[in-house]
## 1
Amino acid sequence: MRLKRGFTLIELITVIVILAIVSLGVFSFVSIGTRIYVDVTKRDQILSEARFVMERLSRELRRAVPNSIRISDNYRCIEFAPIAWSSFYEDIAVSPEPATDEIELASLDGYQREMNDRVVVYPLEPEHVYLAGDDHNVPPAADPVSGNTLTLAFAHQFATDSPASRLYIGRQPVSYCLLGNNQLTRHTGYAYRDVQSESPSNAGIGPGVLMANYIINDPLDANDRPFRLESATLNRNALVQLQLRFELNEELVVFNSEVHLPNVP
C-alpha cells in the first residue's frame, strides 16, 4: 500500500517566501535598468539639444552684419541681422549730397531679395543698423535689381562712406531669447526696430521656434549670463561668449563657446 505524499504547510510557505524574494530581486534589477536607460536617454537628449543650439547660433552669428549684434538690457535676448548679400559700391549719397534711391554695385548676381532686407554701409554700432524708418530698405514689391543697380524703397542719404566702399544687405533680424520657463526660442519674421525688446511677449516678434529646454541660466547673475558681447579692439575682431547651463534630474551640463565674428564694416 502506497503512502500519499504532499507539501507540508511549512514547505509551502518557504517556497512562497523564496519566490517573493526572487521576484523582488528581478523587479528591482529591471527597475534599475529601466531607470538607467531613461536617464541616459534624457541625458543624450539634453546633449543633442545643447550641441545643436550652440552650433546653430554660432554659425548664424558668424554670418551677421558687422556690429548688428546686440544684447537686451536684461541679458535674456541676443539679436542680429543676417547677411543676405555683400558687395562693393561705386558711389553712395552721403550728407550733404542729395539723397538718391539707386546704388551702383560691383555685383548683384545671385542676390534674392526678401521682405525687410536693409542696406547698411559702414556700421560702427548697432544703432547704425537698426535705425528707425525704412528709406534704406530694399522694396518688397517690384524687382529692385536691374543689372548691378540696387534700388531702395525711398531716396536715402547715408551717414558716412565706407573706407573700403563695402556695402551689406541685411536680412530681417533674428532674436534668440531665454524665456522664464527655461526654454530658448528663435524669433524672426519681424521688421527692424531701433529699440530692442527685453522679451518676445512685448516685442511683437511672434512666439518663436523652440530651440532647447532645461536651460537654468540666471541673467541677473553677472557670472551666469547666457550671452556676452565683447566689442572689437585694435588687436582682434568682436566676439560673443555663449554660456548655456542645462539641468535635468539634478544633473548639470554646461556648454561654453566663444564665437569670433569675422565680418568687418
## 2
Amino acid sequence: MYRMILVDPQQRDLQRIVWKNGKNDTVKTYKLNTVTYGTTSAPYLDTRVLHQLVKDEGQCFPLAATVLDSDFYMDDVLTGGDSLEEVRELQIQLIRLVARAGMELHKWITNSSNLRKTLETKDRDWNDSLPEREAEEWKRFLNSLHSINQLCIPRHVLCEFPEKLEVHGFADASERAYGVVVYLKSSAGERNCVRLLCSKSRVALRKSILVPKLELCAALLLAQLVKRVLCAIKLEINDIYLWSDSTIVLACIQHEPWELKTFVANRIAAIQELTKKEQWFHVSSGNNPADVLSRGLAPEKLCNNEL
C-alpha cells in the first residue's frame, strides 16, 4: 500500500538513501518517490490517502466507503457484517474501491470458521459461486437459525441463599472441532441449581491431528476458561470438578510433563499450572455436554437438548 502513495516532489530530497553494490563500486544516491514504511510520516500519509480516496471514489462503493473511513488502521482493516452475504458484498466493494488507487488487499481472514474451512479446501476463488449441493446445504442451515430465538439461558445463576458452590467444567473433541463448557452448581439443603456460565469452541486444524491430541487441547482450553471464570465471578467456590471422556488425557494429567513428548508435555504443564490433578474426573461421552460443541448440533435440536 505504501509504495502506491507518491510523495510530493519537493519532499523527496528528505527521503534520500545512499547505496553501494560492492567494495570498489562508487556510492550512489537515490531518492524514494513513494511513502516508505518506518518513516515518521508514513502512518499519517497512509490514513490521509484513504480518507481522500473515500471522498473521491466512495460514492460508488457505499459499504466499503464507511469501512475505509473508520475501520482501517494504516494498512489493516478489522470489520464485519450482519450476514455472510453482506460481508461478501463488503469484500467485493473494498477490493474495487482500493483498486481505484492501484492498491490490492491481501491476507483475508474470517471468524466464520466452518465457512472458511469448507471453502479453503476447494481451490476456489472467493467470488466463485458454490456448487449447487453446498449452496442448498447453506440455505437449509440459514433457514434453521430462526430456531435459536427459542433458546433461553437464565441470567440468574444462584439458588436462593446458597450454602455451597461448585464449578463443573466439561471438555470434548472430535476430528472436526473441540469445545468446553462451564457450569455453576449452587446448593441450599436439598435444593440444587445448575446454570450454564459460558462455553468455548475451536475448529480443528485441517492437517491431520489425532483425536487424543485434540482432547488434550480441549482440556487445556477448559483449564484456561475455568481460570478466567473464577477471576470474573468473584464468588467463594467450594469445589471445582473438571470432566473429560478421554481416559488418555486424564492419565497424562497425572504424569509429570518431563515424562511426556513435547506436544503433550507443553500442554500438560500448562494444565497443571492452572489446575490441580485431583480436580480432573472421567465422564461418559453420553453424559458430556461438551459433546454438543465438538460434534455440532442443528439449531432446532439445540433448543431441546437436555445437556
